[in-house]
Amino acid sequence: MRGWLLGPLIAWLLAGSTGRLAAEDGESRLPYRSQPIAYFETTSNPVATLQRQIDDGLTELPVPITLRRLLEALQISESSQLLVFARNARQSHQISPANPRAIYFNDEVSVAWTPGGPNLEISAIDPARGPVFYLAPVDRSASKERANSDGETTAERQPWFRRSESCLACHVAEATRQVPGYLLRSMFTSPDGKPESGLPLVDHTTPYERRWGGWYVTGERLPPRHRGNLTTRASRQMFEATETAVVVGETELPAATRRHLQGTSDVVALLVHDHQTRFQTLLTRLRYESLLNRPLDTLPGFVRTLLLWDEPALPGPVVGRADYQAWFESAGPEAFRPLRQLDLKNRLLRHPLSWLVSTPQFQTLPVELRQAIHTEATRLVTAGRETPTRLPEDERRWLLDELLPRFVAPAEPDNR
Questions:
Q1: If you count Cβ atoms within 10 Å of the first and of the last residue's Cβ in the chain, which end, N or C, has fewer?
Q2: Rounded Cα gap, residues 292 and 298, in angstroms
Q3: What confidence tens digit (pLDDT) does each residue in 285-318 have?
Q4: How far apart are the first and last CA of the chain?
């Protein structure tokens, strides 16, 4: 299940250009299988909730499974679709530039689908445990017949979503800081999609000219240099000679993408995904350190991610799908909507604070850990020598006086 969004799904993080997310030398794999983390015990996440609703007869899914209906049930917009043609995922033998893998995602869940593949690949964020990976057979039967003690057959309902431990072979690694996490890659490929060279992992800190190798990238206005859409030897040679991006319109995507829900792989969704996968992986590591009473070595890196501190400036305005932008900005709890406002002129967000603080993964952090994050964020923003040049003084003060106390600091206890 490599390379999620899904991250999701998949494409499922390292700071490509700087290695900032790579594990520290000698960083140990944290014991996530045993208590207090107990990764494989009952989980709380949107996919597990949907399975319980199905079991209780509150929700039904069609058989065979319908991708559109599943996305509706998980509250994921079709406009979030990303298309990956690099063959670096679980069902790699079926992925190619002519048959790309589609990824759909929201703040907590990623769903990946490869046309012709036997399974949907799903990941969902458990607040305490981080990404949890599932497989859902596309051709699943509604029930399985078995014989009872009297020789009669009865219908045994099977779970729609099966947790997949095999995904952790790739999703617990040095690049994910030795915890369950996401891997997002940018690879030059052969004409049939086999990875040949590139960045093993990227995130929102990676220069735009090094991102999106092995991905389709569509939009009205794109960064002038990126590695997306390089599906032929000729296009790759042209890029290496000029570093000029290949522009692909919706009508120019391969005919096979007509099997997908949308004909786009939106640039704004890619930018969102680049940040989200890094945030979720680092916060998983940080929470594990806290649960295990380890030194909070991940704290400085996570806070820089929380503030999008090392995000390179956009080389020019970016314009993607209007419906995706509208869906993204209107999603999530209303109180956090200011953090979902997109800039897309100089940077991804209008305000330099991640919208993902609204998710259960952040909101359920222990008070002591929330306070440590707030203290480190205040220290970083206050240190003038580290202030990004694109962050004006008035915005820096607003971040210190309004955004961090409101959205990051632990809530005051209710003494009423």
A1: C
A2: 13
A3: 999 999 999 999 999 999 999 999 999 999 999 9
A4: 49
